[in-house]
Amino acid sequence: MTARHRVLIVDDHVVTRQGVRVLLEMTGRAHVVGEAGTGLDAIGLCDELRPDVVFLDLQMPEMSGLDALHKIKANHPEAHVVILTVEEGGSTVIDAVRAGASGYLIKSARVEEYASALDSLEAEGLFMSPAVTAAVMQTAADGSTGNGSHGAGHRDLTEREQEVLELLGEGLTARAIARRLGISERTVNTHIGNLYRRMGVNNRVDAIRTAMRNGLLAVPH
Q: How far apart are the first and last CA of the chain?
């Protein structure tokens, strides 16, 4: 049985919070324990309610979503924070992931994407929609020389690790990669861990950026 996550929704628009609540409850995977309209309220409710997943807007009064994210992760490092936004900007994704976000979801996402996000958080501790992953790749491409030169250690990826890296770049979860390659999800996670260590990174965003800078992933056009 899929776990039901204790969820806090943080957005300064009541209508948006209500819409997100409906979608999350429709997934059958979430129990919404609270709502907050500001970053400051979110920090207080995290202390009081101890949610395991926080859906957090970036643009709010009093305190930005990124500032609230820093505070929440400092006080509750075990909590998964999924950034909710209307944007797909790659640089913002990178800032959020580096601040400790576990995922990034467009507000207009369908109920299936909310369900996928919760499933991925449960299985992998990370979720990024394909649209957002594409934005990250484009941002990385903008800062890449694209000359295909490999850094020391990056050329040591195995053929299977390279396959997994390319599928991560397409936005696939470990579960989807396992289905694509016909191997177990546990094996995929082992490959992901190995390639992260070889590349000197600890998340998908930095893996994609590093891979593109070193010619391990194609630069999008």
A: 42
Could you give the CA distance from residue 8 to residue 172 in angstroms, rounded to a whole number? 26
Average pLDDT, the chain: 82
Q: Would you say 164 and 211 are in contact if contact means Cβ atoms under 8 Å apart?
A: no
Q: What is the DSSP letter of 107?
A: T
| Domain span(s) for CATH 3.40.50.2300 in the chain | 5-128
Helices (H), the chain: 14-27, 39-49, 65-75, 90-98, 111-124, 130-142, 159-169, 174-181, 185-199, 204-213
CATH architecture for segment(s) 146-213: Orthogonal Bundle (1.10)
pLDDT of 125 reads: 74
**What would the mean pLDDT of 102-120 be, rounded to a whole number?**
87
Return the structure tokens found at 137: 């790749």
Please tell me the predicted confidence (pLDDT) of residue 146: 43
- CA-closest candidate to residue 85, choices 49, 128, 51, 48: 128
pLDDT in tens, 35-67: 999 999 999 999 999 999 999 998 888 888 899
For the chain, helix, strand, coil in percent to 5 are 55, 15, 35
